[in-house]
Every structure is written in structure tokens, then in C-alpha cells.
């Protein structure tokens, strides 16, 4: 079923739209939430909450990309749940990827304040577009979908070492890219 058909179903308030969304995007959503949370029950709860969020937002919203809109809602909900679950402690599921990307910046405090800035968000979009298709896929799989290096390697048919080297080089390119644009790192 196409995204446009699903959007029309959402606008018509058809409950079948949620089943269609789950059929088309459910597996990737559960994998993404599980990658962030590390707990199947919490992941399933976030996926269901994301579907509810989508139901409540459409209409009036009409996203140009249903998948991107859904993944954005899911990621925000999963990160909120992650923070609630790990307040005051470290958890390796999401923390490993966060530690890797934070190493590009001077400190976590700088990352938090910079990530809130619209300038950094736009710079990150520009940077991602400079990457070739395979490096972009590796970068987004690791830092957006929170997949492990092993999972990325299996999906791309390469070695785990190749993935870690690509990520290291991409983070270095990101650091240089942001420095050139005046982002404090």
C-alpha cells in the first residue's frame, strides 16, 4: 500500500490505516525503538504511542514523507522513555552510540546546547547530504536508528571492522565540517 493511500485513510479516520502503517513500517519501528531502549516491552509501547501520535497529528498535518514523520515521532518518544528509564544511570544500548558521536564535540554539555540550536540541525542536514550513499546509510543506521555495528555490517554485507572505520572517518569529517561552519566543538 502506498503512503498516499495510507494518508488518505488517516484523513478519512479509518482505523485500518493503523494496521496498514504497522504492516508497512512496524518491523523497522520496533527495531528502531528496541535499538534505543533495549527492552521489547518498552519498545512496543513506544511504537504504539507513535501510531497514536500519528493518528492524532494527521489530520491536520500532511507530511511529505509518512515514514520520516513516523520515525521522527517514534524516535522522540523512544528517547523520552530512554531518559526516564535511565535517569541517574548509564545504559549501554543507546549510550554507546551517543558516546561515539559526542566524542566529536568538546563535551556533552556542548552537545546538548548545540543540538538545540537550529543552526546545528541545518549543518547536520547539509553534512549528511555530502556523504556518499553507503556512508550515509552507515551513519544514519548507527546514529539515527541506533543499530549496532554488527547489524549494519550484516545488512550491508561487509565486515564489522569496515563499519567502525567508516564511522570513525565520518565522525572526523563531521568534526571538520562543523568547525568550518563555526560550530563550537
Structure description:
The chain has helices spanning 3-11, 16-37, 40-57, 66-85, 92-102, 108-116, 118-130, 133-143, 149-156, 160-180. The N and C termini lie far apart (44 Å). The model has no long low-confidence stretch (mean pLDDT 84). The protein has 2 domains: 3-85, Rna Polymerase Sigma Factor, Chain: A (Orthogonal Bundle); 92-180, Arc Repressor Mutant, subunit A (Orthogonal Bundle), CATH 1.10.10. 77% of the residues lie in helices and 0% in strands. With 185 residues, the protein is mainly α.
Compact summary:
The chain has helices spanning 3-11, 16-37, 40-57, 66-85, 92-102, 108-116, 118-130, 133-143, 149-156, 160-180. With 185 residues, the protein is mainly alpha-helical. It has two domains: 3-85, Rna Polymerase Sigma Factor, Chain: A (Orthogonal Bundle); 92-180, Winged helix-like DNA-binding domain superfamily/Winged helix DNA-binding domain (Arc Repressor Mutant, subunit A, Orthogonal Bundle), CATH 1.10.10.10.
Amino acid at each position: 500500500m502506498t503512503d498516499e493511500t495510507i494518508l488518505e485513510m488517516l484523513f478519512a479516520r479509518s482505523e485500518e490505516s493503523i494496521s496498514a502503517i504497522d504492516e508497512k513500517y512496524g518491523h523497522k519501528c520496533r527495531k528502531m525503538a528496541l535499538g534505543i531502549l533495549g527492552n521489547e516491552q518498552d519498545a512496543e509501547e513506544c511504537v504504539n504511542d507513535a501510531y497514536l501520535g500519528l493518528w492524532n497529528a494527521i489530520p491536520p498535518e500532511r507530511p511529505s514523507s509518512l515514514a520520516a514523520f513516523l520515525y521522527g515521532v517514534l524516535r522522540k518518544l523512544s528517547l523520552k522513555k530512554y531518559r526516564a528509564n535511565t535517569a541517574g544511570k548509564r545504559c549501554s544500548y543507546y549510550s554507546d552510540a551517543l558516546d561515539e558521536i559526542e566524542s566529536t564535540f568538546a563535551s556533552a554539555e556542548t552537545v546538548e546546547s548545540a543540538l538545540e540550536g537550529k543552526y546545528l540541525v541545518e549543518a547536520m542536514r547539509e553534512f549528511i547530504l555530502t556523504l556518499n550513499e553507503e556512508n550515509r546509510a552507515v551513519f544514519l543506521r548507527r546514529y539515527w536508528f541506533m543499530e549496532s555495528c554488527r547489524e549494519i555490517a550484516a545488512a550491508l554485507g561487509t565486515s564489522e571492522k569496515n563499519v567502525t572505520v567508516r564511522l570513525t572517518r565520518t565522525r572526523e569529517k563531521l568534526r571538520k565540517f562543523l568547525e568550518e561552519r563555526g560550530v563550537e566543538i
